[in-house]
């Protein structure tokens, strides 16, 4: 069996799924696939599904530190402008910025994500 799986989506724990989904729609575009009391799923233009799912007693990961997975986002505009846009819709700059080619931001639920204008072509 070769390549038996495909990445179907990514789930992000949070305390407010609707707010987090709205943030990622504003950041990445896309459309809502479902919205119920436990989760909101969105399909972003790349075809990936992001699911914001409510977790009781949720606490955000700490950057750097406890975040096991984070999103890396490519941008084709000025990095400062991209960061300003993300902050305007609800992101916060992370307190530690380890590499000037990337900007580490925290989404409204505290998950780190990185943006860069430098993407290695495959």
UniProtKB/TrEMBL annotation:
Listed Gene3D superfamilies: 2,3-Dihydroxybiphenyl 1,2-Dioxygenase, domain 1
InterPro entries in the record: Glyas_Bleomycin-R_OHBP_Dase, Glyoxalase_6
Domain Glyoxalase-like intervals: 11-116
Pfam family, one: Glyoxalase_6
PANTHER family: CONSERVED PROTEIN, HYPOTHETICAL FUSION PROTEIN
Name under which the protein is recorded: VOC family protein
The organism of origin for this protein: Nocardia lasii
